Amino acid sequence: MAPSAKRPARLDEPVPTGNYLVQFEKGLNVKDEIKLLHRGNGRVATASDFKEVEIDMGPLVQYGEAVLLDHIGVAVLRGDEGDKNRQLSILEKKSGVRRIYPEFYIFAHTDVSEDDSGTHEDSLSCTWGIEAVGACASRYSGRGIKVAVLDTGFDRRHPDYAGRLIKYWSAFGCDARDVRGHGTHCAGTAAGPRAAHNRMRYGVAPEADLHVYKVLDDGGTGGEGQLLLGINQAMVDGCDIMSMSCGRSAGSATTSNPIFDDIGQAALDEGRLMIAAAGNSSSRDIGYIAPIDFPANSPTIMSVAAVDSRLGLTNFSSGVPVGTTGIDIAAPGAGVFSSVPMPRKYQRLRGTSMAAPHVAGSAALWAESDPSLRATKLWDKLVSNAKALPHHQRDVGAGLVQAPR
């Protein structure tokens, strides 16, 4: 990755980092992948070298290293202006290389703070979102299901999670602390506690095994390589469900990114489900509906739109299909109450970022209810049990996600 100081604010068109993603042919072994990278770029680090510690991929790539994400068969290659063309031409000619794509910046989907005036129809025991998806009435809690939240990290100091075993991992060579609050909020919605400190329940799957992967920096920015590194580690860790409330604009693209398409399929093949927020770039009040962001626009990744407490479609929720891929499902994404870093502790936010973890938590409840519900079967169960909404299928997919009773 390029240094943080050079990272841009989010733009409508995707912004390249200057690095490249190299995808290898399926079935190629790690030793052969490393040999190909050695010929093209010199020294190579593999993600498996750092499985028990946090890895700072930025300096590794910045100082001339290629990083091989060996579980998913993708490498991040530094794009040095001096010999970039030579490196790429060497790799492109190799039979084991499937494709080479530029790496782009990704961002936490913009979240907007809302007041805590109590006008969001929460009950005394549960937030309106937890009620809307039926989690409060569910007999299931997500126990035994590994839920990964790939975001800005998590605040370990939060009292609601005291004594809870949570796995932390970072792609930035530091601990997975959350400064922005986006990741702590999303993690809280997906798997926050059943009984918060003198507060209503805000977590859909309170007994799920929570895995936190910091793939965005403290400003909410990262590269696709860091997201892929987190996905690689989550798959190695055996996570059943991966929730991503980050991405980048589709811009003028007419197709999804085939690298993410393949990784989403690889996850399904391994019994895992990837879920992503659709994006917040629409202005529906003036008739503008934005394309679904990457990676949510991949057909192998479940895309999530946002509705409000009256089940109305939010103004910001992206919805225009990219290629043949549209919205798959909808979830609460306005006035969502959840945990944020200390000392504030709690906050209401809105965005499709808040909707995606509602789906991830619901998926964990379904997965607990029936051990055979994994990957595609779990996807089908979520879609087939969604509550119909009075909106176009393009905007909300199958409807409002529902938890098992």
TrEMBL record:
Q: Sorted alphabetically, which SUPFAM superfamilies does this protein's record hold? A: Subtilisin-like (SSF52743)
Domain Peptidase S8/S53 stretches: 142-399
- The yes or no answer to whether the keyword RNA-binding is present is no
Q: Could you list this entry's UniProt keywords, alphabetically sorted.
A: Hydrolase, Protease, Serine protease
Pfam family, any one: Peptidase_S8
Active-site residues, Swiss-Prot/TrEMBL: D151 (charge relay system), H182 (charge relay system), S353 (charge relay system)
Gene Ontology BP annotations: proteolysis
On whether Hydrolase is a keyword of this UniProt record, the answer is yes
Against InterPro entries, the record matches this protein to:
Peptidase_S8/S53_dom, Peptidase_S8/S53_dom_sf, Peptidase_S8_Asp-AS, Peptidase_S8_His-AS, Peptidase_S8_Ser-AS, Peptidase_S8_subtilisin-like, Peptidase_S8_subtilisin-rel
Molecular function via GO: serine-type endopeptidase activity
PANTHER family, per the entry: CEREVISIN-RELATED, PEPTIDASE S8
What family is this protein classified in? Belongs to the peptidase S8 family.
What is the protein name for this chain?
A: Peptidase S8/S53 domain-containing protein
Tell me which species this is from. Answer: Bradyrhizobium forestalis
